[in-house]
Amino acid sequence: MPLTTIKSNLPLVAIIGRVNVGKSTLFNKLIEQRKALVSKSPGTTRDLNFGLAEWSGKKFEIADSGGIFEKKITAKNHDTIDFQVEKKAREIIERADLILFLVDAQSGLLAKDRLIAQLIKKTKKLIILAVNKIDQHNKDISEFKKLGLGQPIGIAAASGVGVGDLMDEIIKILKHKNTKTLKQKNARIAVRVSIIGRPNVGKSSLLNAILGEERVIVSPIPHTTREPQNTLLEFDSHLIELIDTAGIRKKAKISTGRHNQATLESQGVGMSIAALKKSEIALFVLNASENFSSQDAELARLIIESGVSVIIIANKYDLLEKSTENVKALQSYVNNFFHFLSFAPVVLTSADTGRNCQKILSLVLEVYKERRKQILAAELKNLTDYLMKKMPPPKQTKIFGGRKRRAFIQEIYQKTTDRPIFIIETINKVKIPESYLRYLENNIRARYKFFGTPIKIVVDRLPMSSSRKRGSHG
């Protein structure tokens, strides 16, 4: 089934410049959220980062890019991260409707600024020249007129000084472009799918394989992906937002900066976890060519605790010796290691060759449908009445002591949410043991599946005088 990557109909503004001139800081300021990582380390931004900016009722798409002309690109280093960062930056220059060329008042006019100016002049694109960090150095910015790109606009991206004037200029230049979004497609709600896993299990390669294009930078170097990368696509008449995330490893192994300041890795991991918690489904990527680790198990539990549905992706299985016995052994190993994810489907993939990657989006829609399944109240009552008659809650000591009694279950119902949550209402203070909750959960799942989705059961103790009292069990 064909998929289509959704392209914005809004004009695209690309922020271009050397490293450490403040491109990501400006990007975050323009979209009014912290989406791009910011640090003093050169080359922090690698992949392209896209966001939506709005000013005076007008909207445009904006792209943050890595620094260019940082290292000489040769035939020997065309597979390096530096080459891929440079390639992505040049690609966005070609795609942009307007180039926002950012330079640094603190550094002054440098040779690399001149090289970039020459490059973007050749494109014949619309260009705005902005000089950043003017609040740090009250110097004359007129020297940047030598670039031949017109009157520079002085700004301080960190504090917001001059950013309003910059936005006015952007809207003025884009006045003949369509700055209104098309609502008929993008008004639909997309299924948010996070790609989660340890570093170097093939998450970015998997995204590229699903899309059939080089959307994100791929490298054997751990932590190549530093911040979530969102891609909106349409598949089988549904919108799906795939989110590639930074690899997550144990906190003890994540280094901290001076005075315990957050490092790039720790910030990226924080963004990955935040993206996971905002998702409906996680593609949990594992390296099938090596033994699973305790970190894989911790990530699996994090996924369950986040309440998202899950599809297990055993990637790199092409590195195993190809035989039916090995495939069966791998399936068995996955099922045994992640026995607490027995409800999750498992897909054996090779992101490098694309094998089985085409099955993932269909599975996403199947799991999403199961996640939103609502059981009719009458059906659920009949099932739970039968289960409690077959095996009533075991007698327990009341919270404040006394003789053993059963929990007085008044009602069990499914909460109207985007995930299966069941509420058990009781009107006495006798605890329901975890084993009995698992008994109910297992039987609900046996009847209604909820394929790929964790079930949550919540006990709600009501006062004895509850007006909702309709009957008793036990």
UniProtKB/TrEMBL annotation:
Binding of GTP 1, residues: 17-24, 64-68, 132-135
- The source's superkingdom equals Bacteria
One biological process term from GO is: ribosome biogenesis
| A GO molecular-function annotation | GTP binding
Q: Domain named EngA-type G: which ranges?
A: 11-178, 191-372
Q: Does the keyword Nucleotide-binding apply?
A: yes
| Signal peptide extent | none
Asked if the Swiss-Prot or TrEMBL record annotates the protein with the keyword Iron, the reply is: no
Instruction: Keywords in alphabetical order, please.
Output: GTP-binding, Nucleotide-binding, Repeat, Ribosome biogenesis
Q: Where does GTP 2 bind?
A: 197-204, 244-248, 315-318
The UniProt entry's sequence similarity note says: Belongs to the TRAFAC class TrmE-Era-EngA-EngB-Septin-like GTPase superfamily. EngA (Der) GTPase family.
Function, in words: GTPase that plays an essential role in the late steps of ribosome biogenesis.
Complexes and interactors: Associates with the 50S ribosomal subunit.
In terms of PANTHER family, this protein maps to: GTPASE DER (PTHR43834)
Stated name of the protein: GTPase Der
The scientific name of the source species is: Candidatus Kuenenbacteria bacterium CG10_big_fil_rev_8_21_14_0_10_36_11
